[in-house]
Automatic annotation (TrEMBL):
PANTHER family named in the record: HTH-TYPE TRANSCRIPTIONAL REGULATOR YWGB-RELATED, WINGED HELIX-TURN-HELIX TRANSCRIPTIONAL REGULATOR, RRF2 FAMILY
Superkingdom assignment: Bacteria
Any one Pfam family match given in the protein's UniProt record, by short name: Rrf2
Name this protein carries in UniProt: Rrf2 family transcriptional regulator
Organism encoding this protein: Brevundimonas nasdae
Signal peptide: none
Amino acid sequence: MKRDSRLSNILHALLHMAEHETRHGAPMTSDMLATCLSTNPVVVRRTMAGLREQGLVASEKGHGGGWRLARPLDQVTLGQVNLALGEPGLFPETPPVEADGCLVEAAVNDALAETYAAARALLVARLNDITLADLAADFSRRMAAHPERDRLHAHHGKA
């Protein structure tokens, strides 16, 4: 099963945006975010548009424009971000049917479908408990404890 990395990528971008605004008082452009995420600015704009529709980010056009968080970090949960992304497939809804009519496969798939549903419910509940402020605080703790924090902070701050 291919891993969907949209949630982790956009969380990465949102934390960069928060730090950039704190340090520079300015939004981040799609080009800057694309560099952080090793992707194309068009992908950034498309993804951010979904977050803007949910009120998580705001965009400003023109010189000095870009993307900003629309809410304080402690008012944005990972669950809200996941929902704004269209709830990418963290777990499949149901197992694939390989041998239609096979009773063994039906028994296995029913058990897996129930297990996937329970795992999804636990994951969604946990995502709703974690805020961007929690992630930012964890990042700050890690930076403070890292022996090469000055070099890492300089690299991190380029975005």
